Amino acid sequence: MSEKQPALNILVALLVAAALVTAGYALRHTVSSFLLSFVLAYLLDPFVVMLERRKVGRVYGIALLYAALGVIGLFCFAYLVPFLNINWEKLLTDLPRYVQKGKELMLGTVGNFQPAYATEEWSWLLGKITGSMDSMLNKLGSGIYAAAGRVAFNLLNLLLAPILIFFMLYYKEEICAGITAWLPPGRRETILELGREINASVGGFIRGQMVVSLIVAVLSTLALFYLDIDYPVLNGIFAGLASILPFIGVILATIPPLFFAYVKFQSGIALFQVVAAFAVIYFLEGYLVKPLVFKKSMNLNPLVTIIVVMAFGELMGFWGILLAIPIAAAIKIVSAHFRRGDFNSPA
């Protein structure tokens, strides 16, 4: 019976994980709100802990933290949010025109090329391209407004988040103690040590990734301002968010600026400048910023990383993409402990 126990434990763990994923998908909006609050509370807790070490009570530390965030939030809502809102509304208005102009430029370029052979097939292909671009143009508006609707829902989550964050921070010790009480006494210290190891790895990654994304967003915005590319701030923010994606983030971040540069300047030099700027930014990110920010590498297999990001992105959307690598790192740490036999029954 003892030989079958590890296999049975793994099967039970897989069934529980499948049930949690199914329930999470069914309640994805509630889960999204909870995850937003949990991640923010997780990122803010070190500041509260730092204040506690300076003999500031937890309630007062949370109050000071909320006061500081309130000042920052007031500045953002007074200056940054209106600026971004104006740019977003202008993008919604202008994007169909940009796409139409890009279509005309591309079709003009293709139309100037007349092959000596297979003229009918070429005309058929050109017609197909035109129809596909028209279909994309029609779907673009509905897709953008659907995205705007999701942004509105996330803004509602932001209004609810401060309340959830407060209770998560205030009752942190009670929550941890309650979870610890449910752990098997024989393996409690092992599991707690595992939790501390995962916390150090995952916490460092999330905080480091936020710093990296901010640096990439600022550098991209400045570069696009210098190159006179339209919507530099929105493109810079998108580049910062795309940096979350390993390996393919740089490609996704470059596509919108290339499109705007092509439509505005219609010059290969402008396209080369955009590619060169992003190549320099992501070179600095990969070889200077990340080594300084991430003190310890997660050492995840690149192929596994891409598959995990795609899978969790399909299941959980933005949160799946954001949390895929930390979850993969946590699974790797747990599996390493299993291989060492840390969870074997005590003699």
Helix content bin: over 70%
- End-to-end CA span: 15 Å
Number of domains: 2
Query: What is the structural class?
Result: mainly alpha
Q: What string gives the helices and strands in order?
A: HHHHHHHHHHH
- Would you report the number of β strands? 0
Mean pLDDT across all residues, rounded? Answer: 76
Q: What radius of gyration results from the CA coordinates?
A: 25 Å
Low-confidence stretches: none
Could you explain the architecture of this structure?
This protein is mostly helical and 347 residues long. It has two domains: 27-178, no CATH class; 189-342. The protein is 85% helix and 0% strand. The mean pLDDT is 76.
SSE blueprint and pairings:
Blueprint lengths: L4 H22 L1 H26 L4 H54 L7 H52 L1 H10 L6 H40 L4 H11 L6 H17 L2 H26 L8 H15 L1 H22 L8
What are the key terms here?
single chain; mainly alpha; 0% strand; 11 helices
Short description:
The protein has 347 residues and is an all-alpha fold. It has helices spanning 5-26, 28-53, 58-111, 119-170, 172-181, 188-227, 232-242, 249-265, 268-293, 302-316, 318-339. The chain folds into two domains: 27-178, no CATH class; 189-342.
